[in-house]
Design brief:
Elements lengths: L14 H18 L11 H36 L2 H23 L3 H4 L1 H20 L7 H17 L6 H18 L2 H23 L16
Amino acid sequence: PVQASSAGPPPDWGIGQTALLAGAVTAAARAAAPHLSVRAAPSDGEAAGRKAAGREDWTAASMDAAMGAARDFLDYVEEAPRRLSLMCFLGGLAIMVNGLLGVLDVFQVFDHMIYYVVNLYQVFFGLVTCITELHPDVSPDMYASFFKLQKFMHEWAKGLTTLWGRGLFHLFQGTLAMLSSGDLGVLIGLYMMVMGVVYIWLHFRQPRARAPQEDYIQIVG
C-alpha cells in the first residue's frame, strides 16, 4: 500500500538544509506581501489626541474663513461708505418695527412696564437712525422731505455727524434691542451692533483729517 508522505522535509535532510528551506520560505513570503504588517490598535490617549487635533484644525479653518469674510465686508463698505448708511437705514426701520410690536402689546404696561418704556425708546431711536442715515441715494423724494429735520437733528446731536458717534449710538440701541425683546430683537440688536463696530473701525481706519468722510453730513458754523 502507498503511504501518504508527512509534511516537512525528507527524513534524510540535515539541520542546515532545513534552516535554508525555512529562510527561503520566509523571504518569499515577505517579497510576495511586503505591505502586510501587524499594527497595534491605537490607545485611548492616541485616539483622544487625534480627535483634539481634528477639532483644532476645524476651529482654525473656521476662524480663517470668518476673518476672510470680515475683511471682504469691511473692504466692501470702505469702497463706498453710503452702502453702510443704507444698511443702517434698514436697521433703523427694523428697530422701529420691533419697538412698535412691543408698544402694541399694551398688556406690558401692567406686567412689564420697563420693557414697554424701552420699546418706546426703540421706536424713537429707530426713527432717529433712519433720518440720520438718509441720503439722496436711498430716496431723493424722502431725503428732500426730511432734509430740514435731518439738519436740525445734526445740529442738536453733533455726535451723529461723526463716524465714532454713530458707531456708539448703534451699539447702544443694539444692546437695548437685545435686552428688551425676544429672538427677533436679539437678531436685530446683533445686526445694529455690527454696524456700530464697522463705523468705529472706519473712524480709526482713516486719518483724522478725513473723518468724517464727505459722504456724511458735516455741520459748518
